[in-house]
Task: inverse folding
């Protein structure tokens, strides 16, 4: 079955509340916290902008200021995963969890880390812990990650259940729609796949492979006019898409 790229996962559920500062050292510690927060914000901006190496530099500076900031260590783990430093990523996430073991954002991130390593059942333990924590401010993110992890494992029914739970909380969660579109495509339910894909494409946040799946769906549905309409949007929005030329040449493997 064809595997399509899904929307990029942010992975981070949110920062944690800093501990109360004692009165005699409040001014100094507040300044350190402010400077650490700035470094973390810069790192997050660089990471989401695709500049992972610069993000790592900012995170290292943040850790020089605040070595025991769990949110900084957690973010560092995500960035290290992105650049392929797997062992270092795992160590950073474990260090963060030692500081804040009940932090649902960190539990979610550790779950995603383990999923990338193929340790699916261990990953699900962390996702479930994140979802059972009352302070979990964004459960839909853990639900999406759990669903995508089950997809990687080949557990389609469980994956669909998690992704649908995410949509109950956030009906326009595009990552959940992308995952459900993939599951529907794999089961040859092209009408349902179309429904989820249109949510993504209409949001203006689609990636090129969402368009590839969408035009293949319309080809299988026999709607040539809509296939050409989607193709025109794809060519306009992603003219240099590496998937586009093979599709136009009829070389796309849509089995």
Result:
């Amino acid at each position: 079955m064809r595997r399509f790229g899904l929307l990029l996962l942010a992975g981070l559920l949110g920062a944690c509340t800093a501990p109360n500062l004692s009165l005699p050292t409040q001014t100094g510690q507040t300044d350190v916290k402010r400077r650490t927060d700035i470094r973390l914000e810069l790192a997050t901006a660089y990471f989401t902008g695709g500049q992972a190496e610069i993000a790592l530099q900012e995170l290292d500076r943040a850790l020089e200021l605040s070595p025991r900031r769990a949110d900084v260590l957690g973010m560092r783990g995500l960035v290290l995963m992105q650049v392929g430093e797997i062992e270092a990523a795992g160590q950073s996430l474990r260090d963060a969890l030692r500081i804040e073991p009940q932090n649902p954002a960190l539990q979610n991130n550790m779950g995603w880390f383990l999923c990338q390593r193929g340790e699916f059942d261990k990953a699900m333990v962390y996702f479930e812990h994140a979802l059972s924590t009352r302070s979990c401010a964004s459960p839909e993110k853990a639900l999406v990650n759990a669903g995508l992890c089950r997809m990687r494992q080949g557990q389609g029914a469980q994956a669909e259940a998690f992704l649908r739970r995410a949509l109950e909380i956030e009906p326009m969660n595009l990552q959940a729609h992308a995952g459900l579109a993939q599951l529907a495509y794999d089961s040859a339910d092209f009408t349902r796949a179309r429904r989820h894909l249109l949510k993504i494409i209409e949001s203006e946040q689609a990636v090129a492979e969402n368009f590839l799946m969408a035009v293949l769906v319309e080809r299988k549905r026999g709607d040539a006019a809509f296939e050409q309409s989607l193709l025109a949007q794809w060519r306009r929005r992603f003219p240099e898409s590496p998937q586009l030329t093979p599709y136009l040449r009829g070389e796309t493997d849509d089995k």
Remarks:
- Residues 7-25 have pLDDT under 50 and may be disordered.
